[in-house]
Amino acid sequence: MSFEKLCKDLEAGNRTALAKAITLMESTRPADWDEAKKLLKHFKDKEVVTRRLGFSGPPGVGKSTFIEKMGLLLTNKGQRVAVLAIDPSSEISGGSILGDKTRMELLSRSEKAFVRPSATRGHLGGVTSRLPGVIRLCEIAGYEWILVESVGVGQSEIELSRMVDLFTLLSQAGAGDELQGIKKGILEYVDMIVVNKNDRDPQQVNITRQQYLAALKIVRQKPVEIFGCSGLTGQGLDDVLQHFEEFFKSFDYGNRKMMSEFWYQSLLSSEFRQKLLADPQMSSLFQKYQSEVHHGSLMPIEAVEAFFRDLGWSKSKT
Ligand SMILES: Nc1nc2c(ncn2[C@@H]2O[C@H](COP(=O)(O)OP(=O)(O)OP(=O)(O)O)[C@@H](O)[C@H]2O)c(=O)[nH]1
Ligand SMILES: [Mg+2]
Asked: What are the pLDDT digits (tens) for 140-189?
């Protein structure tokens, strides 16, 4: 497919073109990545009003089920929805952990939806460094709502929270010790909380809610909205959607400047590391000091100092 055709089809909202563009964006091959960057530059000035939402929560809490139901609510209203899932593909096996779990069959069938199980691969220096590019491609293709499902692995959740407009934590009703299992640090980043599976024990939703309120009081100054719902039955989802809509009515798109800054930072560190390892001289230096650390002849702090000294980036003498 020629570059011109790819641009034309992408902008027309063609799903095959979007999938192809995302593959380029996720690729570790430099030629593909160059092509992906060319695409983003081509559409640099294209303005679209979109909503970027991130969803996080422990495994099995019902993120995919909830996102699919929410996606269906939106597509039924005539909105176009893209669903992405961060897939921290195992760097060891190179395989996907998600597999078919995020297929979202019902939503995938909708003309107005685009579902992509794997948005990022295990890039060195941050699993999500290509995600903002993938989000942007979906927006160029005309998707107004971008829903990202995070696979809860600490650092990538925090990174995701800085790449979306609204970051929601999904939790589960009925588990008294629920909060023990959640990394409390995440409460510093969430914009709202959804207590899911309230079809099982609606009363527990209130208890869980109280637990969250108490925990939030410690880490947050402004109140964080907490909703109860069931992604399975759809009960309570209208209220959540209404909250999303209200949120975006007054959303300051100036906040996205911070996201650009963050993308710059995360891209720079991942590209930097890739370039470093691709350069034969730097790579051998890197290996040399890694081996010294391994054998105990240098402390990690000494190895880093020596590395920079050899590069001529540091005047310090060890
Ligand atoms: N009772 C009940 N079960 C639910 C609800 N939402 C999801 N489930 C069930 O919980 C299980 C996990 O749901 P998923 O949507 O795959 O959960 P997830 O958080 O995406 O899981 P991972 O992606 O593996 O972390 C499935 O068996 C769902 O049918 C709900 O609201 N109520
Ligand atoms: Mg899932």
From this structure: 999 999 999 987 656 778 888 999 999 999 988 765 555 555 666 788 88
Considering only CA atoms, which of 34, 31, 43, 30 is closest in space to residue 4?
Answer: 43
Q: Where are the domain boundaries for CATH 3.40.50.300 in the chain?
A: 3-253
List pLDDT tens digits, range 234-258: 999 999 999 999 999 999 999 999 9
Q: Residue 117: CB within 6 Å of ligand 1?
A: no
With a 6 A CB cut-off, is 101 part of the ligand 1 pocket? yes
Ligand 1 atom, smallest distance to 59 CA: 25
The H or E element that residue 158 is part of is helix 154-161
How many residues belong to the chain?
Answer: 318
The residue assigned the tokens 């929601």 is: 168
Dist. CA 60 → ligand 1 center (Å): 5
230 CB under 6 A from ligand 1?
A: yes
Burial label for 294, CB within 10 Å (0-12, 13-18, 19+), is exposed
d(CA 54, CA 84): 9
Report the alpha-carbon distance of residue 294 to residue 305 in Å, rounded: 16
Please state, in angstroms and as integers, the Cα–Cα distance from residue 225 to each residue in 166, 194, 213, 239, 247, following that order: 12, 8, 9, 11, 11
Superfamily (CATH) of domain 3-253: P-loop containing nucleotide triphosphate hydrolases (3.40.50.300)
For ligand 1, atom 12, name the residue with the nearest CA.
60
Whether the predicted model's global pTM rises above the 0.85 cut: yes
